Amino acid sequence: MSVLRSRPALRWLVPTAAAVAVIGGGAAAGTIVANADPALPERSAAQLLVDLQSADPKGLSGTVVQSSDLGLPGIAGLLGNVSGGGGNLTSLIAGSNTARIWYAGEEKMRFSLLGTSNETDVIRNGSDVWIWESKENTGTHFKLPAGAGEREAAPSAVPSTPQAAAEAALAAIDDSTKVETTGAAEVAGRDAYELVLSPRDTESLVGQVRLAIDAKEHIPLRVDVYAKNTTKPAFRVAFEQINFAVPDDQQFAFNPPPGAKITDQSVPEDALKEHGKDAAKAEAEAKAAREAVAEDGDFKVVGEGWTTIAIAKGPKLGELDALPKAAEGSKDPEAAEAAKLAEGLLGTLTPVSGAWGSGKLLSGSLFSVLLTDDGRVIAGAVTPEALYKAAA
Fold it and tell me: At 144, is the secondary structure helix, strand, or coil?
């Protein structure tokens, strides 16, 4: 239920995108009134949805911090010990990532992911797109065809006005989620409205999703996802600092450092047309593909909303247990290290059994994964008990 769908640049610039997978499954609830502190006037949920859809800052720059603690210390430790660094993957489980962003319209954008010893940049300046890796001192330059910056006409399935978008979002509301507000919030020194989404189903591991919306510019400033019965977010992505002045043009100029290896590539116009094809058609094709897989018995989905569970065909546990032994004595150091990591990961799983059979369980604060002895992978943002029911 992304109300930013018609604004592709903002969709990747603002923190909301990081929580779409969580929020999108359970849009929600009855009468909603966004109460605010005396400093801000009251706004209803419908008004806030209109605000989000109509958000169109001329420019902005800021620092975004993503932090996670998914309740998997064993796995985080294993990844952190991998040579070459579990780095970014580890921080997605328990840690943080920091990025800088600059935005001056659809054709001037820059995103810089900052590591402890490296930086990855994605820069668009008109028809030029640069992807830069400082650690390897390498980059790729893409030249976009004329007209690539123009927005595709919105398909009929997508609301064409803010009011229509709000109506469509509210029409999707059901009883699976409770929506309320906590009044006003302050994020990066700015006033914001905060909406709180809470699953009603007790089998969901998600306790709340809190979305802070800038009171003036209307873009999301912070998204927090809380596990059930916790007071600290398991996942947060938020602006630490933000400025709505239009960035200077020099922020979008890329000057390769000495000795840099740059690869030039072109983007065929046909590829852009394919990428921008009708969203409704793409969704229909994806649905047909999922149904085809389900007919083969390799994948299916049970439940809905916050308690959706995916069941897929995978290797049997006996086969997974044999992988580390098969790689013992390998002359390939990467293969040996991968085998050691696989052995360690399997060792963190908890043996479980029931009327459904037996297997091993990975249980985090926001999701559970069950690997069964008969070769099924069952996963969802639900309690282990919900997985056992699905396995049966």
Answer: coil
What is the pLDDT at residue 186?
92
Q: How far is CA 212 from CA 46, 159, 182, in A?
A: 15, 23, 10
Long-range CB contact pairs, 44-48, < 8 A, 24+: 45/170, 45/179, 45/195, 46/166, 46/170, 47/166, 48/193, 48/195, 48/213
201-229 average pLDDT score: 90
Calculate the alpha carbon distances from 258 to 112, 132, 261, 389 in Å. Answer: 20, 14, 9, 60
Cα distance between residue 203 and residue 390, in whole Å: 12
Name the more confident of 251 and 282: 251
**Whole-angstrom distance, CA of residue 139 vs CA of residue 259:** 11
CA-closest candidate to residue 75, choices 375, 369, 392: 369
CA distances from 271 to 8, 31, 128, 274 (A): 17, 44, 16, 5
Q: Which one-letter amino acid corresponds to residue 70?
A: L
Q: In the chain, where are the structural domains located?
A: 8-106+151-246, 281-391
**Could you tell me the pLDDT band of residue 304, with boundaries at 50, 70 and 90?**
confident
Q: What φ, ψ does residue 248 adopt, rounded to 5°?
A: -65, 150
CA distance 94 to 204: 21
In the three-class reduction of DSSP (H, G, I as helix; E, B as strand; rest coil), residue 9 is classed as helix
Phi, psi of 9 (to 5 degrees): -65, -45
State the CATH architecture for 8-106+151-246. Answer: Clam (2.50)
Residue 321 CB neighbours (<10 A): 14
